[in-house]
Each structure stands twice: as structure tokens, then as C-alpha cells.
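Thread title: Can someone regenerate the structure for this chain?

I was given the following input by a collaborator and told the matching C-alpha cells would be attached. They weren't. Posting the sequence so someone can regenerate them.
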Amino acid sequence: MTLPARPRRAGRPCPAPAGAPPRQPQNKPTPGGGTPHSAANEGDSPRAALALAQSYHSYQDMDCQAMIEQAVRNAGGSMDYRGSNHMARSVAWLGTIENAQAEGKLKPGELLFIHEEDESGLPAQYQGDGLGDFSHVGLYVGENALTDTDKHGKRRECDVVHSSQSMGRVCGSTLKNGWTHVGLAKEIDCGIEVPDGVSLSQEIAQAEADGKTSETFIAIQ
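Best answer:
Regenerated them for you:
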């Protein structure tokens, strides 16, 4: 699955648990989104996410965004966003899973997003920016890093931790479970240098030089 080309369209924040008050950023946002933050050390955020999956946390208590933020805090860092779309628009690098694998950027601690083709009902702040709807976020923790049950009760090896509304809890997932994009968060040390701004792959840099739009990689401006 690839991101839509221009004209630019919109995105929707991760739905909040029923009855939960809306979260507000605790710090002043930095230009381009996100907040003043400190990075969790390499490997600590995946371990913290695994610990959350191995101890029961309901979706009501911790939705997808809150789970990522809690894992980063438990790992000694800080992170505070207004939903999965805000997270996707604040990363240092964003590409499809195929891009990430080809460029060696699929590492434990990377954010995983589900990009929706249906863009109905999106918040006004994301309409017209061309990035679309990143409706859900999880954390890549490494190949076969945990064993968990799916919604049918079948045990499986998992490489993603997320808070699932359909499962009702923080749980394991696989890369084949609808995930489409990878994001390199500034708050998580994945052993990859995080540049200032956005790092463009050679492929998209050449496409932009040629006046073309890449269908497989999009950068946050």
C-alpha cells in the first residue's frame, strides 16, 4: 500500500477510549509538531512495550497513542502527542514498511502506523496536508519477540506491541496485521542517527529533483 499522491488530503487522530477526557499536550509543541522531549536509550522502549503487553492493560486505560508514550516514559524518555496522526507528522523519517526494510530502518523501537484509504470524518487540522489518515500506531519490538493470542484465541509469534481496540487490551501483533508505514521517532533511540528535519532517501530526492512525486515514500515538511 502506498501513500496517496497530491492533491493533499487529511488525517485522523487515534480514537480515545470511551469516556476518557481529551488529552492535552503537557509541554509547548515544537515547530512541526511534538513536544520538547528526551530520547529513551536504545532497546529500552521495546523492552518497556513488551512489559506492558505481558502485564494486563485494557484499551480503556491505555489507547494506542498512550501505550507508546507510556513505554517511552517507562524507558526513561518523554513523549506527548495528540494522537497517531500527530505522531506520524512529527517523525524524523516516514516510509512504507517496504522502504524501511530496503533502507535498513525497520529496527526495534520504530513506530508502526496503519494508513487508511478512507479519509472521511478527519479533523480539520489535518485536512489538506496530503499525508492522509494514520489511524493507529504500534511499536516494532523485533521479530518473534513475544507470543500472544489473536482475536480467535490462537497463539502466535508477534513482533509488534500495540493497544488494540478490537482486542480491548495491550497485546502482540504481526507485521501482516494491517501495518503499512514505519516512522523513526525522535524520542526513541533505535541505533539510527536522527537528523535535524527530515532525511530523504535517494529515491525520493531524485524524484523531487525531476519534479515527480514519489508513491512509496513521503517526507514531513
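The chain has five helices and eight strands.
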